[in-house]
């Protein structure tokens, strides 16, 4: 067997391994239960803490923001005020 033949065999095996890996990944994604992102709609609000540390001088800020869980109230809160 020549070196060129051995190289083609190795490349073919690597290609087959990649294709098999893609097939396994596709099957796993199809079987996995879908997880909903975020919180479920309802009453009340979620608290989102935002801010930055400000480095070593202590000049940062931190403020809580209330995000409504109701989609209608959320859309109304995101409207620009006149």
Q: What this model shows, in words?
A:
With 82 residues, this protein is α+β, with helices and mostly antiparallel strands. It starts with a helix and ends in a 5-residue tail after the last helix. 44% of the residues lie in helices and 20% in strands. It has helices at 3-31, 71-77; strands at 45-52, 61-68.
From the structure above, extract its key features:
alpha+beta; 2 helices; single chain; two-stranded antiparallel sheet; 82 residues
Q: Largest sheet at a glance? A: 2 strands, antiparallel
Class computed from helices, strands and strand pairing: alpha+beta
How large is the share of residues in beta strands? 15-25%
Number of helical segments with 4 or more residues = 2
Poorly predicted residue ranges: none
Order of neighbouring strands in the sheet with most strands: 1-2
Averaged pLDDT:
82
Estimate percent helicity. Answer: 40-55%
The rounded distance between the terminal residues' Cα atoms is 80 Å
Number of strands: 2
- Could you give the order of the helices and strands? HEEH
Short note summarizing the structure:
The chain has helices spanning 3-31, 71-77; strands spanning 45-52, 61-68.
Per-chain topology:
Blueprint: H1 3-31, E1 45-52, E2 61-68, H2 71-77
Antiparallel strand pairs: 1-2
């Amino acid at each position: 067997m020549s070196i060129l033949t051995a190289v083609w065999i190795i490349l073919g095996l690597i290609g087959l391994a990649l294709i098999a890996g893609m097939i396994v990944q596709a099957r796993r994604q199809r079987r996995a239960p879908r997880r909903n992102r975020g919180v479920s709609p309802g009453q009340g609000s979620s608290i989102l803490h935002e801010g930055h540390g400000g480095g070593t001088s202590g000049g940062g800020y931190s403020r809580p923001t209330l995000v409504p869980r109701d989609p209608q109230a959320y859309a109304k809160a995101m409207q620009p005020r006149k």
